[in-house]
TrEMBL record:
Keyword Methyltransferase assigned: yes
Domain of life (superkingdom): Bacteria
GO molecular function: methyltransferase activity
Keywords recorded for this protein, A-Z: Methyltransferase, Transferase
Organism phylogeny: Bacteria, Pseudomonadati, Pseudomonadota, Gammaproteobacteria, Lysobacterales
Example GO biological process: methylation
Protein name per its UniProtKB record: Class I SAM-dependent methyltransferase
Length: 209
């Protein structure tokens, strides 16, 4: 179990994770209208929230982990004092143009139907949810027995879960699109083509209908 500080230092020390985070933040900022509010769902220690706030977006942060919240309060104390970052106890406590969920936050959910229904009350019409999720087709995981054992589940059902303490779930994009409907439509998926085999993460953009 990581403390907030340990997680923060670990993820910032990883060059691969920094590159993924930079791509995610760039995509989110490119989609956000100037000055639009955003909800960082599963905000961790506030790394993304701090970047969004610096770009002029008032950022609401929802993070259920107490350890993460404690470090977020320290890392983002200046932004919290200025109210450019606002902590919320529930996603329903805000109304925003966009929701971001970085680094596999949504992979902790077994079913996303009720989540997207809830987020539909948070995101303005025409707004979006941008999620960074684990890619179930990533061939780098083929060396693990759990990946090979679940290959048929992925083909048949578009989903599977790993038997572990955290029970991380993997989802095909079509399953996510079905869960998001009728409130959101899957508008963009990155990567495409050969990236399915080589990229650990996939970015899914859901547009609020």
């Amino acid at each position: 179990m990581h403390t907030g500080e340990q997680y923060h230092e670990f993820i910032l020390a990883s060059q691969r994770d920094r590159m993924v985070r930079d791509r995610f933040q760039k995509m989110a900022r490119g989609l956000l209208p100037a000055g639009a509010d955003v909800l960082d769902f599963g905000a961790g220690t506030g790394i993304d929230a701090k970047a969004f706030a610096a770009a002029g977006h008032r950022t609401f942060v929802y993070e259920p982990s107490e350890a993460m919240c404690e470090y977020l309060a320290q890392y983002c104390r200046d932004e919290i004092a200025r109210k450019s970052i606002i902590t919320v106890a529930s996603p329903l406590a805000c109304k925003v143009q966009a929701v971001t969920a970085n680094f596999a936050v949504l992979n902790h959910f077994a079913d996303h139907t009720s989540l997207f229904e809830e987020l539909s009350r948070v995101v303005h019409p025409g707004g979006f949810v941008l999620a960074n999720m684990l890619n179930p087709y990533y061939l780098g995981d083929a060396r693990y027995g759990w990946w090979r054992a679940n290959l048929m589940n992925l083909v048949r059902h578009g989903r599977y879960a790993i038997a572990s303490e955290s029970r991380i779930h993997r989802f095909a994009p079509r399953v996510m699109a079905q869960a998001a409907a009728p409130h959101f439509r899957l508008e963009r998926l990155v990567p495409r083509g050969f990236g399915w085999a080589t990229d650990l993460y996939m970015f899914l953009l859901f547009r609020r209908i």
